[in-house]
Write a structure and sequence with these properties.
With about 180 residues, the protein is mostly helical. It has a single domain, classed as TIM Barrel, CATH 3.20.20. About 40% of the residues lie in helices and about 10% in strands. The chain contains seven helices and three strands.
Length: about 180
């Protein structure tokens, strides 16, 4: 990126961020732009992280969606629909398992990319914003339930609770050594 080199050479403020379109269904910038961002330590602010609402999970393959939505009358940004709906199908199963929206899964995928520093959500209503940004009841929410599910099953089944450090003590044969 010439601008970064020129800024560095002259001691000027260097670029720190690129604003570009990027989604799980539109990953073209991974070929050249993403490696550049990582090499130059630049961030990416993603605009339209839900591909104009398409990745919200509220649209069908025929283009039908919520009444009054922009994408129904204005198909922008351009998206490979077959790829997008294949992604939506997979994200829908993940969202159901986690009890969250497809939109939150799509944005979570973006935010886990090493070069993505922020997403710009174009929500028109509070409900749309809640769809992508509502906090889980308890951080990290589903992870705690997932990690403790086995322990809870053992308690219900009459098995001993191994949650305390005392229950993990292992007796070894031989004399005890005092430190």
């Amino acid at each position: 990126m010439k601008a970064v080199g020129i800024a560095d050479r002259h001691g000027w403020m260097r670029l720190s961020t690129l604003q570009a379109y990027y989604t799980i269904a539109g990953r073209d910038l991974e070929r050249e732009i993403a490696p550049l961002l990582e090499a130059e330590r630049l961030g990416l602010m993603v605009w339209s992280p839900l591909a104009g609402g398409l990745l919200s999970g509220k649209f069908d393959r025929d283009g039908n969606g919520p009444e009054g939505s922009r994408r129904v009358s204005f198909d922008f940004p351009p998206v490979d629909k077959d790829r997008a709906f294949a992604c939506i199908d997979v994200m829908h199963a993940i969202a159901e398992a986690r009890g969250v929206s497809v939109a939150r899964i799509a944005i979570a995928w973006l935010l886990h990319r090493s070069f993505v520093t922020s997403v710009i959500v174009g929500a028109k209503t509070i409900e749309q914003l809640d769809l992508v940004s509502a906090l889980p009841l308890e951080y990290p929410g589903w992870m705690i339930q997932f990690q403790t599910a086995d322990r809870q099953r053992r308690q219900v089944g009459g098995m001993p609770d191994h949650s305390s450090a005392e229950s993990y003590r292992v007796e070894t044969p031989g004399p005890r050594v005092q430190a």
